Task: structure prediction
Amino acid sequence: MYYGARGIVGLVKPTYRPGSTESFIKLMPEGVGFIALHVGVSAGTDQEFQDALAIAEKKVAKLAKLGADIVMIMGAPPTMVHGYGADAETATQLTQKYGVTVLTATIAQVEAFRALGIRRLVGITYFKDDLNRKFARFLEDGGFEVAAMKGLDVPFADAGKIPPDEIYAFAKKVFIESGGADGIYMLGAGWHNLPIIELLERDLQTNVVSSIPAQVWATQKRLHIRAPVKGYGRLLEEMP
Result:
């Protein structure tokens, strides 16, 4: 089956760092094609994220011309900093303007929370507290109870270097200290957390929503594909 036979996905990545594109492609089935463009976020500041959507629109326009069937604006922070509802409004406007289905990471993740029955969640990130408060407010405005939104103390540029076992330990600690929840939300696509999703779900008897699996799940839904993947948590294995 040739690449693109089951759809062409345009990816708008916030940063240039490796990892998220490779993970996205790894979790998608054979026959899907990919075109990746980048916004250029490098410092992970509030201002960069505020400016990112305007840059992302130019990338959406280019991907539409290149024949993408769907465009995923990756990265939750660029839409979260604009407040709840801005993501859906942006996606609708860009879909109508460029004639291609546009999704954001936050739309995918919120849909995943609801599909898994998550109402109370614990969030972990690699961002500073000022941004974490904005992320929590975004979710609370969407009707979720945020028991915690805690960030690992690591430079933004080094998020991809955090060992998975360190992410596991941090998630477990925050989850237990917060009194448990319906789910753990691992915000951000810059860290390598795929190996610990299933482990956290099994050990803590909860659900885990991570950036890339949620985006893969939502993209497959829009492309009318159902290709479950084992080993990365309930969302991709059961495809609810």
Notes: DSSP finds ten helices and eight strands in the chain. The radius of gyration is 17 Å. Residues 46-65 form the longest helix (20 residues). The first strand starts at residue 8 and ends at 13.
